[in-house]
Every structure is written in C-alpha cells, then in structure tokens.
Amino acid sequence: MFSPRGPSLGELCVQALSSVEHGYDLLAPKFDYTPFRTPSSILGATTEVLSTFGPFGRGLDVCCGTGAGTLVLRPLCTRGFTGVDFSAGMLGQARVAHPDGTWVRADARAMPFAAGFDLAVTFGALGHFLPAERPALFAGVHRALRPGGLFAFPVGTLPPATSVAHWVTLGFDVAMRVRNAVWKPPFVMYYRTGAVPAVSADLAAAGFTVEAVALTGLGEHSDGSPRCRLVLARKHA
Known about the structure:
Methyltransferase, 7-stranded mixed β-sheet, methyltransferase, Rossmann fold, transferase
C-alpha cells in the first residue's frame, strides 16, 4: 500500500498521535507516496462529470493538501485556481508541485473568500469534520462561490454489512473514537460520518441545490450500489 518513499510505521504513529494540523505537517513531505492521496481514478472520474458543466472561470480546492485537486481544476478552469488548507506543510508541497496555483493558508471553517469562484471541489476531506462542523464549512464554500457556482466532491458510499469493507471502516471509526477519548489533541478522521443523505441535508440548509450522481466507472459494491457518488451542490443564481 505504501511506496518505499512513503512514511515508516513509526512516522505514521507519531502523526496519528498529533493534532490534525500538526499530523499533516509531519506527513506532508511523504504524503503523495501514501494511499491517503486521492487516487487518479477518482480525480479522473470527477473531471469527466464536471466537464459536462464547464468550462468554469476560477476554481477553488478546499482542504487542498498537496494539490491533487489541481488535476481536476487546471483543465476545467480558464482563469486559474486557488487551494486552501490549514497545514503549512501540505501547502508548501503544493506550491512546489504546482507553481501556477494560488495557495492560501486558512481554516476551511472560516475561509477568507467572498463570491470569487465558479467551481469549488474537495477530495477526501469531509472525514476531518465532525457533523456539527459541516454547516460552517458549507457556509464558507457558499460564500466563496459566485451566484450559480458549483461545489462538487466525491463521497464513497457505505459498503453493505455483508462485506469486509463494512467492518474495516466501522473498526477504523471505532478505533479513532477510542483514540480521541483517551488522547489529546484529537485527530478527527472518520469514514462513516459523511453519508450522502446527511451531507446533502447540510448543503441544502446552507443554500445549495443538491444532486448526487453515481461514478459508475469506479465500480459497485456486492449489492449493486455504486462505490462512489459525486455530490453536485449549486449555489442559487
């Protein structure tokens, strides 16, 4: 799962016992050599769907990390793109890898943008926000978009209870809750708190019109449901 250039087990343990921000600062130089980086298959499937709505003007990558989302924004956005993240380490890697972008350090729950973007995306970040924090996150994205702007992100669907993946993700979330109950600072990362219906309800409350489309190219669970959906949230014009 890890490249030889990726982090050691010891480094991962130190990261896991840190805060989210400091943990990603530590992991940043080796992050792109881990399975935590958004796979190219997801980026490609997202680009394919969004290309039917574009082109767009300016793009925003929320919780951009080392900049994987640029592979979606660069071909779709004619006026450039901006990435925002609270990890200085991750932003440093993004600046080196993608010097054509604009990189801003800020908490995604309090982004300093207003009506400046036509497309916003985020990849693999929702698990870092507790459900109670999503309204602030989505309100900030809504504020950052121009009227009619689109916020898009893939969400992995919960596997059926008969699958190994169901129990692996459940076990991970339970382990993280135990870790956060006994160790401070917390490291928030949960796989099962961002189901499409709950996320869609929060987006609607923030002022978006929401739909979700299956990313069929990414496969299906054993019960025939898609492994991943793309949430499309449109700010009212």
